[in-house]
Specification:
Residues 128-416 form the NADH:quinone oxidoreductase/Mrp antiporter transmembrane domain. The chain is mainly alpha-helical and 500 residues long. The protein has helices at residues 7-21, 26-54, 76-95, 101-106, 109-125, 129-148, 153-184, 189-198, 202-220, 227-234, 237-261, 270-291, 295-316, 319-350, 361-364, 366-380, 387-400, 404-430, 446-464, 466-481, 485-490, 492-499, and strands at residues 57-60, 71-74. The chain has two domains: 1-127; 128-484, no CATH class.
Length: 500
């Protein structure tokens, strides 16, 4: 079973290389890419079920045991995120590129999507600091290509900001890795966490944690959000959904992993700062969602807002808060894919990005009205939809830790998030179609509606099946928060060697 751990990363890479040679056969390329991601999803889910029954699985490359070799670890946290990511990438590739399908394949777009997916999956699975940096770079290099591929002036402008900020973040990440290696003498997550807990050099640990905080914040759009609205607003529906579902979530995952497993001894400094940054991010997101009439930018600021919710749960550093943050992170992968599918479809239907000019969708597309309402309730955290369970646990964690300002901001900004989307809904769906500019409605392919329907079903299922998902997130929380639990579960031989 351990050897299967490499497949969710290896399959997309192999398929991406094969697609280079099949780019002239669009149907074959489409079948190969969708089939590969379906297989990857099934393998990831099987590994997650196995891990829940038998504990984490560990793959030591080349037979070199940690701390000497590169190591992949499949624990509940990494595998639930790999599974969720594989699901949404499958749906995004199946959604396709419409009329631009042949051109997209000719430009190797599916290959770069799969390379980005491989980087994301590798970031979740690796248990080695330098390998995390490598996987981040694989993911970012693919994303740089995807952002600039349209060759429009807007894309190039957005790409400059995106590339510069992410290069700075990557440089800081590399500096942090070097300093942490100098301090602990190892790159393995489990051993780094153990050695940091034994150290008395508090100042060095806090300084290094701040470097990682800034580096990961630039990836997650935690306060450092400047790249996100511009980049997301110039991408087409499929790529915007891909970026919204995965890019910021990798940064959020890294913050959760590092600030529960490694930098957890000085919570009065590190985690209070996380709460503060989460509050600032929620405020930024709230202003963004009500400031624009461009529905793509409204959707982009919804992504920023949700990152604030996740990091607030982490910052409480209570079991409930971290548990809720992990649940909400999984939920957000699904919901933000749905959000950008719906927003992108509405833009395609109406040919407009500013909702105030579009009316009369209620009669023409009632399906999207229902999907839109369910999505709004999920984003707002209304029961029984998928956003509710995670937010309840984050609320509980904030109360337990006395973070009443963060709690209040989360409630207020959640209502603002719902208001901003209801505003779009009522104008586009309930508005008088005689007002505003005359709109010529396009027809959306039926299979795309089915894909949106699957995501809507997923949102409902996550809310109903929340107790089952909490079994996974609770085990993930225990493994990362409990002192020494991660080391005992993944590398018990290191613990014995450290005691000698």
């Amino acid at each position: 079973m351990n050897n299967l751990l490499i497949l969710p990363l290896l399959l997309p890479v192999v398929c991406a290389l094969i697609l280079v040679f099949t780019r002239k056969q669009s149907l074959i390329s489409r079948i190969l890419s969708i089939g590969t991601m379906l297989i990857s999803t099934v393998i990831s889910l099987a590994l997650l079920i196995y891990v829940m029954k038998h504990g984490p699985v560990v793959l030591d490359f080349g037979g070199w045991r940690a701390p000497f070799g590169i190591q992949f670890v499949g624990d509940p946290l990494s595998l639930v995120l790999v599974t969720s990511s594989s699901v949404v990438v499958t749906l995004i590739i199946a959604y396709g590129f419409g009329r631009a399908e042949k051109r997209a394949i000719r430009y190797y777009l599916p290959s770069f999507i799969l390379f980005l997916t491989a980087g994301v999956v590798g970031s979740f699975l690796t248990a080695d600091l330098f390998n995390l940096y490598v996987m981040f770079e694989v993911m970012l290099l693919a994303s740089f290509v995807l952002v600039t591929l349209g060759q429009s002036v807007e894309q190039l402008r957005a790409a400059i900001i995106y590339v510069v900020l992410n290069i700075i973040g990557s440089w800081l990440l590399l500096v942090g890795i070097g300093l942490l290696y100098k301090l602990t003498g190892t790159l393995n997550y489990a051993l780094v966490a153990h050695r940091l807990s034994q150290m008395e050099d508090h100042q060095s640990t806090v300084i290094i944690s701040m470097i990682f905080l800034v580096a990961f914040s630039s990836k997650a759009a935690l306060v450092l959000f400047m790249w996100l609205p511009k980049a997301y607003s110039v991408l087409n529906t499929e790529l915007a959904a891909l970026f919204a579902a995965l890019m910021t979530k990798v940064g959020a995952y890294a913050l959760i992993r590092f600030f529960t497993l490694m930098f957890n001894d000085y919570t009065e400094i590190t985690h209070k700062l996380l709460v503060f940054l989460a509050c600032i991010t929620m405020i930024i997101g709230a202003f963004g969602v009500i400031a624009y009439t461009d529905i793509k930018k409204v959707a982009a600021y919804q992504v920023i807002l949700s990152i604030g919710f996740i990091i607030l749960g982490l910052g409480t550093y209570t079991f409930s808060g971290v548990n809720g943050a992990i649940f909400y992170l999984i939920n957000d992968i699904i919901v933000k894919t749905l959000l950008f599918f719906i927003i992108g479809s509405l833009i395609y239907l109406t040919g407009r990005r500013h909702y105030k000019y579009c009316h009369g969708l209620a009669k023409r597309e009632p399906f999207f009205g229902v999907a839109f309402i369910i999505m709004i309730f999920a984003i707002g955290g209304v029961p029984p939809f998928s956003g509710f369970p995670g937010k309840v646990y984050i609320f509980k964690g904030a109360i337990e830790n006395g973070n009443y300002i963060g709690l209040t901001l989360m409630i207020v900004t959640s209502l603002i998030a719902m208001y901003s989307l209801f505003r779009i809904y009522f104008v586009m769906y309930s508005g008088n179609d005689k007002k505003g500019d005359k709109v010529t409605f396009n027809r959306l392919q039926g299979y795309r509606k089915w894909l949106i329907g699957l995501l809507v079903a997923g949102v409902l299922a996550m809310g109903i099946a929340a107790p089952m998902i909490f079994k996974v997130t609770s085990q993930a929380t225990h493994l990362n928060v409990d002192e020494g639990a991660y080391l005992k579960a993944t590398n018990p031989h290191l613990l014995k060697e450290e005691k000698r």
